[in-house]
User: Fold this.
Amino acid sequence: WKDLMKSLMSSENEIRKEAEKKYEEIKTEMPDATCTALIQEIAQGESEESKTMAAVLARSTLSEVWEKLSTSTKEDLQSRLLDALKAESSAPFLRKVANVVGAISFAANDGKWPQLLPTLYEMCKHEDSNKKELGFYMLSLVLGHAGSDLMKFDEELHPLFENALQDRSCGVQVSGLKAISSFLSSCSTNKQMKPAQALLSRMLAAIGSAVQGDEYNARAGLDVLIEIVQVNPRFFKPQLKEISSAMLQHITMNRNLEPATRRLALEFLVELAEKAPAMIKSSENLLKDIVAVSLVLIVEGLDTKIDLERWNRWEDEDDVDEELQGFFEQGLEALDRLAVAIGGAKMLPAAFSFIPDFIADKDWRYRMCALYCISQIGEGSYKVMKKHLAGVVGLITPLLRDDFVRVRWVAINCIGQLSTDLGPAIQKQFHDTILPALISAMDTTQEPSMRVSVHAAAATINFCEHASEELLTPYLPHLLQRLAHLLQQPHKQANEQAITTVAAIAIAVGEHFIPYYQEFMPFLKSLLAKSAGDASMAKIRGKAMECISLIGVAVGAEKFREDAKETMQLIFSMQEQELPPDDPQLSYLHQACGRICRVLKSEFVPYLPAILPSLLRSVAIKPDVRVEDGDTADNDDMEGMEVVQVGDSLISIKTSALEEKANACQMLVTYLEQLEDGFFPYLEQVGREMKPLLTFWYHDDVRSSAIQSMPAMVQAAVSYQEKQQADRSIVTQVLGFAFPALLQSLLVEPEVPLQAQTCRAIAQCVKSCGRNCLYADQLAEVAKALKQLLEDSNERMETLQGDKSEDEEDEDEDQEEREAIAAETEMIDEVIYLVGKLIETHDNGFFPYLEELLPWFLDKLGDHSHIAFKRLGMAMIDDVAELAGSFAERYVATFMPLMLRHASSLDDELRQAALYGIGVCALNGGPSFSPYTAKAVMTLLHVAREEGARSKDKESATDNAVASLGKIGQHQYVENPEELWSFWLSYLPLEGDVAESLLVNKQLCQLVLSNHAWVLGRDHSNLGRIVLIFSKV
Assistant:
């Protein structure tokens, strides 16, 4: 064992790897002996190094094999560890032992370590501050999952926490705060949490004390408060005023404190705004105070000593402003997050109480700050800001001509950001102000700063994103003239940006770019050819490929065909250089080929043999993942890595390689979708690569592309079979590959949006293959998977809703909750779509399995459900009633009471769906509908006749009510048909719901052609009205 431990600590890679292999074998074969030896080493090891190694190994090993250990071994290990805690004196090593205790505590949950909490309580009362601090640290590891055991000691916890917060040691105070945070995370109800709110004053006092002399611990304490906000933001509600005042006035605005400390205090309040926006809104002047402090940080963070000459030249693209770090960056981020969380109704007044004065200030820093503020709050405040666009644009445009160059740059930046956030309103209303200003700024003969000119070109891209072809076309001559001039400048950044902006304009105006095609395409091809092999020109080559392909998409195949072929030859010559997998040019290359494929369609097929090998190499990139101890990790070795801390370990992954893999996967999907049967010869090869990526957990976009590839492969097989008149078994074989792969991935996919995408992909497979393409056992498997999906959604929603107290019921949902509900509803919407396709394509074959799913949707139509889920429940029963045909008769008695009930809902969308469903039940319900006819007619007439029935908000629902009346009149017996048809005709034509209007117009034509007596009226008295209706259609 001693030799093995020495080998595990060896500096020689081969010896260490061999030892690690040996250790894994021993751990698997003899878990009891291994764990006993590790704890023995921790307690009695010969050196600090070997004891530390044993502690690190024990932490992971015990978590992994705990359930495999015998009861006697478990009890022995627990006892020895507690003894080691009491005997050890080295504070750093004690922390390692504490982590092992935490790992066992988590593994041995639910009262299987009864001696632990009493021992920790004793340590928390110890006279030695190091022991006491460690006791609270371990308590923080344990309380979060102590479960029912915690409640047995609840009476002891509060005095324990109070003593910690009043301790003279800042370290003890912070560990106490961490334990309180852990306790709060274990509280499943507000009732459990509320007693701890009595500690708020002491918690704040502990932070204040640390701020006075121990900022390291003050920051640790602030981090704990932020953790509490993330889990239970309403914990701070009783003393929000005192806490916010302390954070803003005594910490963030205290220039004597270290920057990191000041930033954390503001972060606390911004996080609170995101998690509990109603608390911030209801606290008088608090939002305005947070905005004011954020603006102060921006002004304070602006660099007044910047070298303007160098800044103007901007010769190095990596030459970014240092001020983008620190106070400046945090002030910007705070404003953005506040606006998104709080919304424009409150945020705009708070911000604009400062902005006009800042705009008028002689100090350039305040003018810049005001512009930054406007651009940062645009996204979150767009609904309200759109109403005040004239005033906002009026404040910005004078600063486009400001004397100070950096103010001009920020004004352009502001215009660009608002063009994105407030489009297309700002484009429609102010194009004649904004575009001439941007064109002028791009003129290097008038604008002395190359950096400003380049930024104006960048802002033009933002403007074009939401501008119509008609709006942009009159400005093309001057816009493209300026960009052509920038392309000729001996300035790398100017050239790159001009190329990118030309591409954006081409996409925005489409065929309107054709008159300018010859001005740019030869230059771009020449640039691509001349720069070949020059490493310093790699990025501009990529930009040129991107621009060429985007122009091709804009102008179409006829204009682009020959240049596309030349471009492909240039791309092939680049491929011959065998670029490394993470070379940025590869991404540009693959995406350019994908666009050219979209233009050329089947003409692109001959290029596939040359393109696919490089693409598949990128698809096959393995993730570069490393797990290192946080204390010993080499930060210099993590450049280009995304790093996540999990406990004391750092997990890092190389992101550039993953992005290249994701891009390559998406390109394969593009080829599959665009070429269909032309891609058929490569299906087996591509399927072999893509199927395992359905569970590639390192990157969501990779999984997304893998999901998309499955129905695309099925469609390629269908297209090939139809065009070549091949045997149908080809389609069956590909479906047999794709369907189970998608179904298996659906059951293990953790991300709700990708669950939705997988449901859509299965539906697309079924739609492509057509009638009865799935066997009975496959239909059963789909139903079982969908049922599990719906049950999992219920669990997530219950967790999300939690246990809200009465005073919280009316508080608005926070951003996270809104996004979660949106994701769930999107996923369930796709479940409904898939069920619809299964009903459509399998006659009555899916109905036995539908019975397993319907109860979930029917339950959502109860009073307890969120409105979004009521809409989904109604959408589901609408679809079933519509698609089931005559089989719908069996469901009418279940569906109609629900439809009639919700036909008077105050929610427009739910009401419209219910009214539509009544008509579908009348159409397909046969005799089963008869008991509901009278009530249905009365309900529909009431809806159609009520005040404001044809108002903008209600018209679509009313249209559906009238359409349903027509279905009842045509397909069911009614007692007073003359009244029904007379009213029906009096309302036509429908004008709100276009889709329903087309169907009703068609129905009217059929009824007239069939000489329907009640429609034509007595002695054809309704003919004049009918002619008038047709004249309006």
